[in-house]
């Protein structure tokens, strides 16, 4: 029916772990197992009843077929009730396992907190990038100022040399 391999099972398990968390996953698995066992039990009961009715119908003669069909119809209605009850019980137990406890956060709250944390981290990264850009600009300014100072020093040294040469000539 379902062709699920090992890799698919691992992916399903990881997704379930992320969605429900490590604390609630065992509870959910227990509830799901109980629900599936209840559905399986109901299906087996229904199967036995249908087989019993078919045997009863086959065993009766032609004049008793009408009564057999009425009994069969009643049996099918009973099976339908059992299936509905089993399904509702299974869904109730699953819902109970999924509903968050008062002290636990829902997956929506956890997702919202994660998004907020990621936004804060992005803001911090942007601020750090801006600070890095400001530092680069400041370094370039300092380099430019140092270059200008060196030029001024060279000019002063050249002027002193020229003055010394003029003094020597004079």
Question: Could you explain how this protein is built, in words?
Answer:
This protein has 170 residues and is mainly α. The protein has helices at 6-59, 65-98, 107-169. α1 (6-59) runs antiparallel to α2. The radius of gyration is 42 Å and the shape is rod-shaped.
Outline:
The protein is an all-alpha fold and 170 residues long. 89% of the residues lie in helices and 0% in strands. It is rod-shaped, with a radius of gyration of 42 Å.
Q: What is the number of E strands? A: 0
Number of helices: 3
Mean pLDDT: 80
- The radius of gyration computed from the alpha-carbon positions, rounded to a whole number of angstroms, is 42 Å
Task: Report on the biggest sheet.
Answer: none
> What order do the helices and strands follow?
HHH
Binned, the helix content reads over 70%
Strand fraction: under 5%
- Structural class based on helices, strands and sheet pairing: mainly alpha
The rounded distance between the terminal residues' Cα atoms is 112 Å
Q: Give the overall silhouette.
A: rod-shaped
Which blocks of ≥5 consecutive residues have pLDDT under 50?
none
List descriptors.
3 helices, 170 residues, mainly alpha
List the helices and strands and how they pair.
Elements lengths: L5 H54 L5 H34 L8 H63 L1
Helix pairs in contact: 1-2
């Amino acid at each position: 029916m379902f062709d699920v391999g090992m890799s698919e099972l691992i992916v399903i398990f990881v997704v379930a772990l992320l969605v429900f968390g490590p604390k609630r996953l065992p509870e959910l698995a227990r509830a799901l197992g109980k629900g599936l066992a209840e559905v399986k039990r109901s299906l087996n009961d229904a199967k036995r009843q249908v087989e019993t009715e078919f045997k009863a119908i086959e065993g009766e003669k032609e004049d008793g077929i009408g009564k057999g069909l009425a009994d069969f119809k009643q049996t099918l209605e009973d099976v339908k009730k059992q299936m509905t009850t089993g399904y509702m019980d299974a869904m109730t137990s699953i819902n109970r396992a999924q509903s968050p406890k008062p002290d636990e956060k829902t997956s929506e709250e956890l997702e919202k907190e994660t998004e907020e944390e990621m936004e804060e981290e992005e803001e911090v990264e942007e601020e750090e990038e801006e600070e890095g850009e400001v530092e680069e600009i400041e370094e370039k300014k300092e380099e430019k100022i140092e270059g200008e100072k060196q030029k001024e020093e060279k000019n002063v040294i050249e002027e002193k040399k020229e003055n010394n040469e003029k003094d020597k000539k004079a």
